[in-house]
Amino acid sequence: MTTELERERDTFPKVARANAERMGTKVAIREKDYGIWQSTTWREYFDNARLIALGLAALGFARGDKTAIVGDNRPQLYFSVLATQALGGIPVPLYQDSIEKEMAFVVDHAEARFAVAEDQEQVDKLLHVKERCPRLEYIIYDDPRGMRAYREPFLVSLADLMDRGRKFADEHPDYFDAEVAKGRADDVSIICYTSGTTGTPKGAMLSHRNLITMARIASAREGLTPSDDALAYLPMAWVGDHMLSYAQAVVTGFAINCPESAATVLSDLKEIGPTYFFAPPRIWENLLTNVLIRVEDAAWPKRRMVKFFLDIAQGMERARLGGAPAPAWWRLLYPLGQILVYGPLRDNLGLRRIRVAYTAGEAIGPEIFVFFRALGINVKQLYGMTESSVFVAVQKDGDVRLDTVGTPMPEVEIKISDEGEVLFRSPGVFVGYYKNDDATAQTVVNGWLKSGDAGFLDASGHLKIIDRAKDVSRLADGTMFAPKYLENKLKFSPYVREAVCIGQGRPFVTALVNIDFQSVGNWAERRGITYTSYTDLAGRREVYDLVRTEVVRVNRSLLDDELLRGAQIRKFLILHKELDPDDEEITRTRKVRRGYIAQKYAALIDALYGDREHVQVEARVTYEDGRTGVVRADVTIRDAEVFETAGTR
Q1: What domain range includes position 450?
Q2: Element (DSSP H or E) covering residue 42
Q3: Is 631 helix (H, G, I), strand (E, B) or coil?
Q4: How far is CA 7 from CA 91, 177, 182, 208, 366, in A?
């Protein structure tokens, strides 16, 4: 494998310095602040990181120290990542919506001495956890609003830190360059903590070599150039954002754009019109939900026209993905649909300029995937994980298939174990889990990383992922049961926000459903259905009828699947509360914690397999400020229509 890097550009600080010298006046990062886009060049990017690094040095930062970084996507936080690396330190990004317990675990486990926080909200959380994190010495904050009355001696504003950096530079003019020169390709570049789907999060250590090599390989394969634009809106703690908004941006030199806030992402997306877009399925689901809501709100003639042309586009895309010819009348009408529907929709979504778009993080529902490709958006499935520096397999342009995640990336080898688990080795395979040698040894065996996913390689070398290996099971009668596959089909509906399917060792499949509060709320208001809260709306008979039609749609679609047609959903209920990371039901990346849900909702699950039609429930919920409360409800259990086939009983 070609994993050697030039000594002058084998760490991110060295590559960023080369960018500052080679294209110093080119925009590196933009941020929308008070409605105006502010630009930072590569020269300014590097200079800001240099001053932050020297300020940290003035506080006593030493090689190997960790910096916890928390907040929304902000230029100053990306500068802090580079600054930490320049001194031989290791940045540890945290999810900005972490509750105090989650934040305390990562800060303490990573042994962070320094923390850089975006604003008062994040500072307050760090102050509350500091007593449990004895190694945390300094908290640095960027936004001074609300911080005037804070008097803790270990609190330092970013502006003050940079002033200290200027003074330190005057006294130690060669210090920064000397520290950057000490960096090596195999130094740990970042620690990204896994989402902790099955237990305590693990800190995956990725080296500069890992990330720079995979960033170069992926950028070359997709033809990314310095003229590309990307939106930096995903959590900085997620390895996907770190690859796109930091690693690939620094290596390739393209610009990233930070939205004003989480609430303005969709409008800012329209203004930027990125050429490169990276999103997990939940983002594509949200975009689709917004489209479908607008379609439903349109006048009857327009609604019929849009649905007509969308059906044509999706039919053509399915035919293309399946290698079949599309009917001639579809091909004749498609250009008209491009003018009336597809083009305006792309413009409205802010995806008109997209050249490359990925979906990753978990499997995407095929219906969602087809929908966006049918609009002419080059969405491709990417398979990877934190431990692989993101990239393992990606669909190639012109070779996109509905049921695969593509072929291995260059320099990546994939094989399937005798148990059906996907194994791979590549230059991106991580250094190991921080302070967890046992878990590292269990994950990487003889150079091959065990993915934990069940899948296979087809005759043309495409990788197909069935589900998490531990989740693929069978019903009591031996029928294959892949819960995530069914859940993705349910979530294609704009009315379903989340779903958890149960069936392992059971006589049939059941489902716990979360409605999409916004979408179902709009639907209810158009029909004059009043409600007071999520719990009230979720319990309405009309909403149950609505969700039942979506369950039946999924069951009907399974008739075309020889392996899973016997795994149709026979009963379902609508949960009285939304699944929430703060309640430990899903991870920060919205992956279901199945074991925890099986325990917490055991009474509901038992009722789904009994004769009861109603269940009284009481659930404890956690609010953002750490307070807890109790939600009580009468949950209804409903049957769904099951389609009999030779494979079902």
Answers
A1: 281-467
A2: helix 42-58
A3: strand
A4: 22, 14, 11, 12, 44
